[in-house]
Amino acid sequence: FQKTLQKQWYQRRVRGTHPCNFGPAHFGDDAFFIVENEKRSVIGIADGVGGWRRYDVDPSKFTRSLMNNCERIARSTTTDVLNPVGLLQRAYEQMMHLKSPLLGSCTACIVVMDKEKKEVSAANLGDSGFMVVRGDVVVYQSQEQQHYFNTPYQLSISNDRLGVIQDRPSDADTTTISIQKGDLIVMATDGLFDNMFQQQIVERLKIIDRYAPTYETLKQAADKLAADARNLAMDEDYMSPFAMKAQHYGLNFRGGKLDDITVLLASVVNCWEEEDT
User: Fold this and answer.
1) Using 50, 70 and 90 to split pLDDT, how confident is the model at 147?
2) Alpha carbons 51 and 30: distance in angstroms, whole number
3) What is residue 44's DSSP assignment?
4) Considering just the CA atoms, what is the radius of gyration of the chain in Å?
5) Phi/psi at 270 (nearest 5 deg)?
């Protein structure tokens, strides 16, 4: 499905970080989960495609089910390696094999932090995403995947309904990058990235002491990001990232993009012994 350009009011909710496991949870059509154990930290986020409402289908049920499956699989996996694409594939297959599969579509992003290897592996399908910030520098930002303007890659179960895009977990953009103490990982649905530029996001993170972060400052920063994105989404004169993309495609659009906004913020702390340098 193509996402709607028409301005609508969606439920919004700010989510900060959580000191331990959290999830799955959902707000509007977004859903997320967090799993933490000795070997790894796993976070995931999904954004339901609202076009299903024209068929009287609640898209939030699809995202909740997918994140619920991901959370359960991530929590029960005891092997040393957890592949984010494999995690997404198993969760999606479990939905497809239900006697009465849930109809719907969503984008999805999974990030796995391996504490032993000191690296992050990620799979991003569609226009949700994440960024790794080191100091004032964005060392990595995932790239959105679009079939055409405002039509992101998406996992779907459609019962062969015409006009529904059905991508696969293996179509996700993947990456593995090294991380270090003090890095911040910002994961969000497109409600953030369509309304705030990269530098605006980095600026909101400056309140965090990178080497001694507290839960409260992380939560404050996450709340601030989501609140600012919401305010910019309602500004009809703001030349948002989404508006710039729309004009690039020849569309006469200006202002922010009203959407669900979910923000997860993680800090890399000293969870391994420092190496001698």
Assistant:
1) very high
2) 14
3) E
4) 18
5) -80, 75
Which amino acid is residue 268, in one-letter code? V
The pLDDT value given to residue 29: 94
3-state SS record for 172-239: CEEEEEECCCCCEEEEECHHHHCCCCHHHHHHHHHHCCCCCCCHHHHHHHHHHHHHHHHHHHCCCCCE
Average pLDDT over residues 18-33: 68
Please choose, from the candidates 251, 178, 253, 194, the residue with its C-alpha nearest in 3D space to the C-alpha of residue 228: 194
Note the pLDDT of residue 163.
80
Give the span between the Cα atoms of 162 and 33, in whole angstroms: 31
Question: 147-185: string of b/e by CB count within 10 Å (b at 16+)?
Answer: eebbbbbbbbbbeeeeebbebebeebbebeeebeebbbb
Q: At what angle do helices 59-76 and 84-96 cross, to 10 degrees?
A: 130
* Tokens standing for residue 207: 């309140």
The residues, ordered by sequence, that sit 6+ positions from 73 with a Cβ below 8 Å of its Cβ are 87, 90, 91
- Say how far residue 244 (Cα) sits from the centre of its chain: 21
Q: What is the pLDDT of residues 236-267, one digit of tens each?
A: 999 999 999 999 999 999 999 999 999 999 99
- For the segment 222-226, the average pLDDT, to the nearest whole number, is 97
Please give the model's pTM, rounded to 2 decimal places.
0.89
Contact 125, 88 (CB under 8 A): yes
